[in-house]
Amino acid sequence: MGWMLLLTLAALAGEPTLPVLQFEAPAVYPPAALAEGRGASVLLRLEVDLTGAVTRAEVVEPAGDGFDEAAVQAALNFRFQPATDADGNPANAIIGYRYTFEAEAAPVLSVEGQVREAGTRLPMERLRVRLVRGDLERVATTDLDGRFTLAGLDDGGWTVIAEAPGYTTETAELEVERGTVAQVTLSLVSSRPWEQVSEEIEIVGRREAPALTERVLSTAEIRYLPGTNGDVIKVVQNLPGIARPPLGIGQLLIRGTAPEDSAYYLDGGNVPIVFHFSGLSTVFNSDTIDEVAFMPGNYGVRYGRTLGGVVDIRTTTRLPERSRGYLSVDLFQTTAFVEQKLNDRTALAVSGRRSYIDAILNPVLSNGESTVRAPRYYDFQTRLLRDTGGGTFDAMFFLSDDRFRFLGEDADGQDQVQVGFGTAFQKLRIQSREPLDGGWRNELTVTGGPESQSFAIAPDGGAFEKPFNVNLREELYKGAEETGLGWRLGVDLQGGTWRYEYDVPSFRTNEAGDVTRFAPAAYVESTVRAGPAELIPGVRADGYFLEGYDAFAADPRFAIRFPLGTTVPKASFGRYSQFPVVREALEQPDLKPLTSWQTSAGLEQRLGPDVTAEVTGYYNRLQDLVVGREDAFRFFTGPPPAGPLDTDDYANDGVGNIYGVETLLKYEGDRTTAWFAGTFGRSTRVDRPGQDERLFEYDQPVVITALASHQLPRRWRLGARARLSSGNPYTPVVNRFQDFDQRSFQPVYGVRDSERLPTFWSLDARVDKDWVYDTWTLTAYLDLQNATNQQNVEVQSYNYDFSEEEPVTSIPIVPAFGLRGEW
Amino acid sequence: MRTMWLTLLMLMGCTDGPNPETLITDVRVVAIVVEPPVVAPGESVEIATLVADPKQRGVTTTGWACGEQCDVASDLPEDGWFVRSFTPDAPLSYWALACETGRCEAPTEAELRSPVDWMGGLPQNAASLARRTVPVVADVEAANPVIEDAPPEVVAEPEAEVPLLFRVPGAEQAWGYSTAGGFARPVEDVADAGDAELTWYAPKDETTADLYVVFEDREGGTAVWQGSWTAP
Fold it and tell me: B193: buried, middle or exposed (CB in 10 Å: 19+, 13-18, 0-12)?
């Protein structure tokens, strides 16, 4: 090897001197080239500072095959006698240096190492690693995999030091011995965990129309929010537009509508439920989710067949950076998740969850005569994701099963189900996303599988609904970014069978059927950009075919967004149709679709770098609501009505008005996330012409949620959530009578929904602590739900003869402790 | 789902000791006995309403059934019983209202036809409304169960646990009520031979109590045992 001086850029006055090489560090010879006995020469440009150290090395004439990187690495370890200026003072210099590789003189490899982030094991690339031995210092730079090598080190002990901004400095001692290669791995612990966000999940809040409103929260932020148990879908419950469901059960009451008026999607395909029965968690693992789109109203033509809101859960389309997983154990459930990269273009994820609330609560809730089998649930998802080079193909199988039983004893002392309830589904979803010419994108999604809901009540009552649904969505999409004109064209086909049986003698119900359904829809939407304004007109056409029943609906929709600096006004108007449920359509084939004319207008305002505000006013006019044939007991389609029942034939006689204002003020700082969500509205119905307007059973004029989460030093995190909401209306019982035919007391109701439960409020608190180890992270948390042990009235109940009110109150304080190990 | 929660909460109210459901504190229709329990078209049926008046304020009982016309009558019950006779051609929906004397005005035709609505305006603790449907079926013979064996008297110290033994062949269930103290369970199964054992708890503070046990055969047949307890 040799070297050649080419250029001097030091001070040229007088007789300056050039840097003189004192130590020429050997390069790590590229293994493949060494094996083939190939040599090479690389011309470098070196910057030498006042101390004689090389502060920068660049390749001027590359040789390829790994020689360039090796030469740069070696040059950074050169030591020079510094250059001097005309006065003899040390001076900076830039010189040329040709490094020559000769296979026969290749130095011996001394050290192989890797630097990675503690806990996540993510490689830390382009990091400078120092090896120190007395006055000697050698440096290496990590590659994209966080790896580094050094050759030609003297035998003996060396100290390895790895430093990075925002991380603790890590050191390791190693012994270099000629003939062996010392191995070392350093794990750096982040000292600013709030910046340690390797993956993000988007929560697209209140999207009035495509791309009108987007809000992004990191996974870490969501995991630490109190009251959500780390579940990204549950975060939606804290957004404006959502009323609080009674008893904390997992339902979404969106903009003054009933739970059955809203729809849930996974990647555009219908799914029957997203919450397990207890509402403690959702049926999908958060780590497979890329974003959650919550649309309380005025959504685009992609969605239909519903009067209320829409929640679309979208799975990630990115391959994971690494294989990973976690095991989480808390008071209620255990969750496991593993994601494995099978190769550079394919990944497999598997996750499952099982609750054991039953094991904990059964002994508590049971007495000598009866036994409660508290809710137990499990879910499972497995997903194969493949990068097709620009697009993705993925197949996902997922299932969920919830069961609840209340047992008594029969005459022989054996367990007998007094009340039982179950809900389950198994689904396969296949999706292809591919880019097309001209900026178009094609998305094909097929989701299908059986669903079931069942109910049993002693001694011989039972009911079930067992649909087998298949949903096919084919969509072409082109954004408006390039030409100012975008399009969304699609078909949304739903079909399948629907078996049902309602046979509960004590409720005087006996119906059964097995029907085939088909619900095709087509939609088109354009996005027109005119200056700063974005106009989005669209139309959706829906059909619904049941045996002996058919109906059609055409729903025009329009949205406009007009950004003015930091202020973004927006408005939407459209028609939304929902078809009668199977039971209604079969019995009354001339029923029309239920209709909602939805109008909303609002402002988005950025108030600072970390603060945003949003206000939206809305008015929905409901028409052709199906009324009549009310049972004291409804199967699976919402709460039982209370009060005098409308037992006339089904008819499209109901109308309703829903109006209000939704506000959201949000702060997203480095270490703090906080928001205030307020919904102020009203929801009313008139059931039959000439009847008085009444409050809807879920009318909650005021719903306020304030929450904050703050990262403390030493990996502690604190959070709190306060909620206040109006109590639901209810129908009071004003007297009772004895029905000797049924051998029970029956209530005499007052005016329907004329009373209101007391205002609900509660405070939740959460504290988290992380311990970061080399290859994994342990998190312990305490989620204190209802921290003040507030006894909120959830449902108005009565004693056996309805002579006394016995309000059902919310769950008392629940200190949920959990552990999560993530690797 | 909400339905399930409400049902669960309803079913969870089980405790040991006297069951509050068996205690009668205000005027109440205890039983409606139809003789015979199933009647053929055009035949006469006697409907007897048993009323409890624990506060001894006096009770007026009104009984009626409405067809094209409403057949209504009111009277003071004798020994707690108010009896009416009908000759129905079709199933008869019989209503009985027991009301503390002077607390309920005479009903209008509309109130008789919609007694549940009428009940909404009556005082909760001073009126008791009950309904019983009388089946009208040709060529069916039915009879009420007969109490063959029952306690001759109830003797017990205050707070004592008192077993009460009955034999009522044909009965399937026994419902216990009392104006003080209380039965262990609102309803007990009757064995195939008609044997039934009910447990009654004598009160701690009161000195007297009226006891009622209503036997039913699940097909409309009813038999009633009345007893009383006085503190020794």
Answer: exposed
